[in-house]
Amino acid sequence: MNKDTKKRKNTKELILKAASTLFSEHGYRATSVRTIAQIVGIKQSALYNHFKNKEEIFFEVSKEIFNTPFSIATDSLNKESLTGKVFIHKFTMQYKLLTFDKASEKMFRLLMIELLQNEGLREQFISEFHNKNIKMLSEGFFVMMQNSLIRSGDPMIMAYEFISTLFYIRLQVTLLRFDAKSTDALATQFEKHVDFFWESIKN
Amino acid sequence: MNKDTKKRKNTKELILKAASTLFSEHGYRATSVRTIAQIVGIKQSALYNHFKNKEEIFFEVSKEIFNTPFSIATDSLNKESLTGKVFIHKFTMQYKLLTFDKASEKMFRLLMIELLQNEGLREQFISEFHNKNIKMLSEGFFVMMQNSLIRSGDPMIMAYEFISTLFYIRLQVTLLRFDAKSTDALATQFEKHVDFFWESIKN
DNA sequence: GTCTATATTTGGATAGAC
DNA sequence: GTCTATCCAAATATAGAC
Fold first, then answer.
1. Residue B61, in any domain of the structure
2. Chain D bases under 7 Å from protein CB?
3. B123 CB and strand D closer than 7 A
4. Which of A10, A158, B183, B184 is the most buried (most CB within 10 A)?
5. Closest residue of A to B199, CA-based?
C-alpha cells in the first residue's frame, strides 16, 4: 500500500514538482526538459506523454503561483471583526508566514524570476497580488477611520504604503535565502513594520 | 566630420548599446549574439573581435546598472542642508526622475530581469541600491530627530519604511511601462507617499 | 575588423519498438 | 507509458580568407 501510494504519485505530478523547483531556481529558459526528466527518473521523451510541450509544463506550474497565497488570510481576517493594530498585525503575520513558507517561497521566487519575461504573470501580479491586498487592507482601514481608531485619509493610500513595505521585506528575504544567507537582520522587520505603521496612523 | 563621428561611434559601443536594450527586454539567455550583431549591422562572428564572449558583453552592460543611479541625489541633497519635509520631498523627486528616465528605466528593468539569476547582481542590489539609500535617508532622519522635527524612533526603520514604498512604486511603473500601459494611476503616487510619510513622522 | 564557412553543443520534439 | 534512436533548429564560438 505504501509502495502503491508512492508509485501512484503520478509521473505527471512528479514532473510538475521537479519542474517547479527547477523553474524557480533557474527560470524557464535555463531549465531543460532533459533535466526535468532526469530528476523524475525518466527519459526526456517520456515527458511528452504527459504534456504537449515545455510551455504547457510551465503553464501548469505557474498556476500554483496565485493559488495558495492570500486566500487563507482573507478568511481568518474577516471572520472575527478584527480592527485596529490587531488587524494589521494579523495580516502581517500571515504575510510573514508565507514569506518563510517553503512552498510559497518557491512560487514567489518563480514569480520574480519570470515577472519581466511573461506578460500574463505581470497582469496577475497586479490583479492578484497587488489589487487584492489593497482592497482587503483599505477596507480594514476604512472601518477603522469610521471608528476614529486611526487618523483620516485615503484608505487606498494607507493600504498602498502598508503593503509596499511588506513586499519589500519579502523580496529581500527571498534574495537572501536564495543565496542561503542569513535573514537574521530581517527577522523582526515585519513586527517593526507593524509597530511603526500603527504609530503612523493611530489616533 | 559628421560622418566620421558617426563611424567613430566604436562598433564596441554600438554593440553595448544594442546588447543593453535586448538584455533589458528579453534577459540574458533569451538574447542571442546573432540578434545583437544584426542590430549593430555586422555579422555575429565579428562580435568576437570586441568581446571574448557573450558573458563579457553582459558584464560590461551590467556595470551600467549601478553607475548612474543615486550618485546625483547624494550631492544635491548634502550640499544644501535640507531637512524636514523638503528633504524627503527632494529625495523622492530624484527617485521619481530616475523611475521615468529612459536610460535608468532600462537598467532597472535589466536588474529586475536578472536579479534572481545572477548572484553578483543580488549582492550589488543590496549594497548599492538598498544599503546606500538606507544610509543616506537614516542620516537625514537622525538629524531631524535631533532637531525635534520628527517623532523619535529608529532612523534605520524609518528609512526602511520610506524606501520600500519608493521601490514598490518604481517596480509597478516599470512593469506597466514595459507593457506600454498607462501609468496615470501612479502618476502622483510619489507625491502622495511624501505627504503620507511626513504626516506619519512629523512632530 | 569584417566576412564566409564550419565546428560543436544543447535543447525541443517526434517515430516507432516494446 | 517508457524506451532508443533520430531529427531539427538555434546558438556559441573558432578558423582562415580578404
1. no
2. 1-5, 10-16
3. no
4. A158
5. A200
Closest residue to C6 (CA, C1′): B45
pLDDT for the residue A3: 42
How much is the pLDDT for B70?
55
pLDDT of residue B148: 96
- What is the CATH classification number for the domain harbouring A31? 1.10.10.60
Tell whether B47 lies on the interface with A, counting CB pairs under 8 A: no
> By percentage, how much of chain B surpasses pLDDT 70?
89
Rounded to the nearest integer, the mean pLDDT of chain A is 92
Give the domain range for residue A107. Answer: 67-201
Residues B106 and B28 in one domain: no
Comparing alpha-carbon positions, the chain A residue that sits nearest to B129 is: A172
What is the CB neighbour count within 10 angstroms for residue B19? 25
Question: Do B72 and B134 share a domain, yes or no?
Answer: yes
Tell me, what's the pLDDT at B2? 43
Q: Which of A126, A158, A164 sits opposite B164 (nearest CB)?
A: A164
Do B71 and B49 reside in the same domain of the chain? no
**pLDDT at residue number B88:** 95
Claim to verify: residue A44 and residue A82 sit in the same structural domain: no
3 state DSSP class of B202 = strand
End-to-end CA separation in angstroms for chain A: 61
Residue with cell 568576437: B48
Mark whether B84 and B107 lie in a shared domain.
Answer: yes
User: Where a domain ends, among B30, B53, B76?
Assistant: B53
CB atoms within 10 A of CB A102: 8
The answer to whether residues B41 and B98 belong to one domain is no
Torsion angle in degrees (nearest 10) through CA of B44, B50, B51, B57: -80
Q: How many CB pairs under 8 A join A and B?
A: 96
The residue in chain B having the minimum alpha-carbon distance to the alpha carbon of residue A158 is B196
Nearest alpha carbon to residue A108 among A14, A191, A175: A175
Asked if the structure places residue B58 within a domain, the reply is: no
Query: For residue B191, is pLDDT > 60?
Result: yes
In a shared domain, residues B81 and B134: yes
In Å, what is the separation between the CA of A176 and the C1' of D7? 43
- The 10s digit of each residue's pLDDT in B105-141 is 999 999 999 999 999 999 999 998 899 999 999 999 9
Angstrom distance, B34 CA to D17 C1': 22
Residue environment code for A106-118, b if the CB has 16+ CB neighbours within 10 A, otherwise e: bbbbbbbbbbbbb
Mean pLDDT of A190-194: 98
Q: What is the pLDDT of residue A83?
A: 81
Nearest to B113 among A26, A117, A154 (CB): A117
